What we know:
The chain is of the alpha/beta class. It has helices at residues 2-42, 82-85, 87-92, 119-133, 146-156, 184-199, 203-217, 227-236, 241-256, 274-279, 283-291, 307-310, 312-320, and strands at residues 48-51, 57-63, 70-74, 98-103, 138-143, 161-167, 267-273, 295-301.
Amino acid sequence: MNKTKVFKGLRIFCILLLILAVLVGVTSVRNVILSARDEKLVEDAYGEYYTTPEGERINYTFYDNGVEDLAVILPGYGCSSAHFEFDTLAKRLSDRYDILIVEPLGVGLSDGTTRERSAENYCVELHGLMASLGYDRYTLIGHSIAGIYALKYCNMYENEVEAFIGIDASVPRQIDIDNTFTQPDVQYKINRALKYTLVDTGIYRILTEVSFDSVLEQIPTIRDDDKDTMLALYTTDQMNDTQLREGKKMADNMRDCYDMTFPKSVKVLYILSKDNCDQIPEWEQLHSDIVEKCNGEVKIVDGGHYLHLTNLDGLLKAIEG
């Protein structure tokens, strides 16, 4: 009797496993077909390009608001399209800045690269873009990991950066936080696993399609005729090889900038997510430690890590002072 139950149990398990394999096979094939379609749909869909000396194209979008000051918006890690993600923020800042939204290599419509994703390479690439456009004075606005790149950039090109505004931005010494899930190496392993189990199988595409309306609600300035392009970018290019290499290099980049602070000539404003401050006790102090050594301040705003999506009004109020 026991053997019969075991046999029936194994048979049911095998049937379920077979059904799962068939479903994953279907979603994987669907993902390959739709990804090929999406690549054609998004080709040169927006912005302009700067070509690096190595021949790789960086996409950027310029909002000419007729304002004297320029702000350069840099996305966080794993961004699918900075052009779309920061569209509402850029438009809400139109009375304060001309805006340049930059998609670093591996993001949105920019090319991928096999070059090392070091903070220094990132900064050299960004500076090449700024020089090609003829800008030598500007403010950097960076979300999440862009805080590390901005810190490095300000130390490399001190005379060009007027100010840095960090949107729940990363700092080098967060690598010391005793929290497994905030460690860059752990995040890299998780993202790599998610790429193979969710992205490559097409499951991530389905999850994104189902939840896409809620994403659009957070970026109300997106035009109807851009929604298909935005969805294509959000489902096709997630955790690409360039982004994974960036994730693998993240801990090294934090160590490289570990003892850095901003030059006193750069005004610094860290705007932190209250959710992160509540969940990570060290979060506020790590940022305060940096601004104590430079010309800066820290403000805390209600909302999650993506403050430009979860509490844009609060973020703008903090920026405007």
